[in-house]
Amino acid sequence: MTLISMLEHSIQHYGSKPALAHKPKGGTYQDISYTELGESVDAFSKGLNALGVQKGDRVALLSENRPEWAITDFGCLKAGAVTVPMFSTLTAAQVGYILKDSGSKIICVSTSRQLEKVTAIRDEVPTLEQIIVFDPIEGECPEGVIQFEAVCELDGDGQGIGACKSLIDISDADVLLSFLPLSHVFERLGGHYVPLISGAKVAYAESTFTVAQNMREVAPTVMLSVPRLYETMHDRILRTVQEGSSLKQKIFHWGVSVGSSVSSAIQKGKKPSAILQLQQNIADKLVFAKLKAATGGRLRFFVSGGAALPQSIAEFFHAAGILILEGYGLTETSPVISMNHPAQWKFGTVGVPVPGVEVQIAEDGEILTRGPHVMKGYFNSESATAEVINGEGWFHTGDIGIIDEDGFVKITDRKKNIIVLSNGKNVAPQPIESELVQSPFINQIILVGNERKNLAALIVPNFDALKAWAAENNVATDDLATMFETREVKQLIQREIRSRLTDFADFEQVRRFTLLDKEFSQEADEMTPTLKLKRNVIIKRYGEAIEKMYPEDP
Questions:
Q1: Is 37 helix (H, G, I), strand (E, B) or coil?
Q2: What pLDDT score does 199 carry?
Q3: Total number of domains constituting the chain
Q4: Residues 396 and 445 in one domain
Q5: Which regions in the chain score pLDDT beneath 50?
Q6: pLDDT of 10
Q7: With the C-alpha atoms ordered 496, 499, 500, 504, is the resulting torsion angle positive or negative?
């Protein structure tokens, strides 16, 4: 079985059922059937062959999520080519580097803006022969540029995933809303391949800024996201509650308490009592109905990946009747190593290994994996491959973790992120950071302290919550920098840190912090496209602020 043969099975089996859905600018969602998808994939693959694409040739893809992305990817595979997906946010120089490194013969771009990036570096890429553009181009196409529709009109000649399909539990009755970049392997597998070989429908969000609106329009049954979305939803819910009356706050906290009791019973494999079920029904109507309606009202479960999901966030949503299933893997492992399943899950873990995948913990705590999911190697880099795959075929993930008594994998941190204090103590920053961002006053945080006596933190506060608190406590809020330096605000943040780290060891306590007046962002190259913080970039950028937190050090 190949990806193409599995897609062709879906096309034959599901025919007129919707496969994809997109929303034209100013319009409403429109469906593309499995039959139409198959015809487009077939036409595009033949067009690629007509352009001279042969087995093993690389075809780059620079586009936002849209139907043409899916058609191009499957069309490349059917033509025997290798897809080279790129994040749509890359600069022209970054695009040029990937094109040269991969030796791409063709690049497909979505818009005139993306076309400009490629045009700017085209002369630097000797292997590049053709640019295919999805959006219509006004006037005559420049030399070496061809429209997507024109490629489809040309007359050319021309296993591992099944385990993930069984775990993710997607069928032809499901509808997914896709908004994470399809160039990222998490979305490409879970939000592209798995649903389309399962007969499900994939609807593309208009942008990352319209996800909430599109969720209500599409009413997905399953949705993949990174933890940042769930954290943002959680923070907004709490902020709305805090702005309500004392009665509404009491009802909300009662509802969460009831939901938590139900969740606890389910996690222990027990059936909630009749009284608890009655209370849950009331809580659903009074407290959680709006939250479920905001997701479209049909959600079976969320899937979380790309970064660590705080256990408290998963527990909160489950108390509200929404299950978040966390998985784990890397690009080099196709990507799933382990995953929680609707019928087998444990919060605080990333699930059990998928069928056919071996996992073991090395002596230093690093997670190793072996199996058909592991890559063949890094392109054109045997030395880099040898550094991560040993002679017995074990891939070194770079993550630190354990396997518990029930076989669930638990990640504690990235090996390279471990902070070694000057006293030799090793600190995993991720659990501490995950706990602290649960504070309503802390939005983002990076721990520092390598080779220092103790930990310190760069903190981006929740500006709205902090301003509201400051106003209630007669602290001037006109200037953020000035407000951050007030004794009242510093004491507030210090109290939040102390109260939330009571279960951590003395050497894991955050002794000092600096408040920053702007969020870490992708635009500033401080976050990845899947919204993970770039720790090294941030630490280097705020080096001066970090040094000020350690005045006693030379």
A1: helix
A2: 97
A3: 3
A4: no
A5: 156-159
A6: 97
A7: positive
